[in-house]
Amino acid sequence: MSILVVGSVAFDSISTPHGKVDHCLGGAATYFALAASYFADVRVIAVVGEDFLPQHEAVLTARGIDTRGIETAPGLSFHWMGAYAGAMNEAETLNTDLNVFADFEPKIPAAYLDSEYLFLANIDPLLQARVRNQMPDVKLVCGDTMNYWISAHAENLAKVLRELDVLLINDGEARMLSGEQNATKAAAKVLSMGPKSLVMKHGEYGATAFFGAHSFAGKATSRPFRAPAMPMAEVVDPTGAGDSFAGGFYGYIASQPELTPEVFRRAMFYGGVMGSFACERFGTERLQSLTREEIETRFKLFREMSHLAPEI
Amino acid sequence: MSILVVGSVAFDSISTPHGKVDHCLGGAATYFALAASYFADVRVIAVVGEDFLPQHEAVLTARGIDTRGIETAPGLSFHWMGAYAGAMNEAETLNTDLNVFADFEPKIPAAYLDSEYLFLANIDPLLQARVRNQMPDVKLVCGDTMNYWISAHAENLAKVLRELDVLLINDGEARMLSGEQNATKAAAKVLSMGPKSLVMKHGEYGATAFFGAHSFAGKATSRPFRAPAMPMAEVVDPTGAGDSFAGGFYGYIASQPELTPEVFRRAMFYGGVMGSFACERFGTERLQSLTREEIETRFKLFREMSHLAPEI
Question: Is A157 within 8 Å of A149 (Cβ atoms)?
Answer without folding.
Answer: yes
